[in-house]
Amino acid sequence: MKKLLQNFHQNVYPKFFKNYFYELEKAVKDSKSLIDIGCGTDSPIKYFSKKIHAVGIDAFLPSIEKSKKQNIHDEYYQIGVLDIDKHFEDKSFDCALASDLIEHLTKEDGLKLIELMEKVASKRVIIFTPNGFLQQGEYDNNPWQVHLSGWSVEEMQERGYKVIGINGWKPLRGEYSNIRYSPKSFWMFISDITQFFVRNNPKKAFQIMCIKEFNN
Questions:
Q1: What are the b/e assignments for 29-56, b being 16+ CB within 10 Å?
Q2: Terminus-to-terminus CA distance in the chain, angstroms?
Q3: For 91, which of 28, 122, 153, 166 could close a Cys bridge (C-beta 3.0–4.6 Å)?
């Protein structure tokens, strides 16, 4: 029974509600290599990372060590996210991913990160971030967890990104993506239901996944 429930939550549930894990794997699609920038402790690529050559980078060593224990990536590098051009050549990876990262940078540094990602990727760039500014402080003894900027649907579209709404209707969630209301299980279900609407109406979503494809 435990294995059946685990299979349901990992394979059936994400496909039915088209949650972030499902949408991310779909967006990565034919990529054979991926650089996971700011990979953290528990990267969402863990559900499909064995299908690709995955490189994780993070400035916070404890995060890398925790990720290594899960064997999510094939390689790890402890480097600053704005230094990737010093370690990797242009078009080194099919896909560059920044999941829950860009909001931790100032606007100026965030724009620089986007430029670096677009240089290092040959097929596509994927950025996952809150829809607009979301207040968040430091946690897990990691000073890089503070949110410093917000990113809108309009500005990402102006940069040539396709934007998909993620994690349901924006008012239902707050800091750390936690459900705001009780009982949590009920409102989580409501949030999942609203995902059907916000996917193609990203301005209403709590988070946004932004995808830029390159024609080679």
A1: eebebbbbbbbbbebbbbbebeebebbb
A2: 47
A3: 122
Reading the block at residue 127, the tokens are 């950025």
| Distance set, CA 149 to CA 61, 111, 128, 144 (Å) | 23, 11, 13, 13
Are the beta carbons of 43 and 56 closer than 8 angstroms?
A: yes
Structural tokens at position 4: 């059946």
CA distances from 126 to 23, 27, 46, 138, 160 (A): 11, 8, 16, 25, 12
Beta-carbon neighbour count of residue 182 at 10 Å?
8
DSSP calls for 78-91: ---GGGHHHHS-TT
Model-level pTM? Answer: 0.90
The C-alpha atoms of residue 101 and residue 105 are separated, in whole angstroms, by: 7
Contacts of 54 (CB under 8 A, 6+ apart): 33, 34, 36, 45, 72, 73, 74, 75
How buried is residue 198: exposed, middle or buried, by Cβ count under 10 Å (0-12/13-18/19+)? buried
Structural domains of the chain sorted by starting position, each given as residue range(s) with its CATH number in brackets:
2-213 (3.40.50.150)
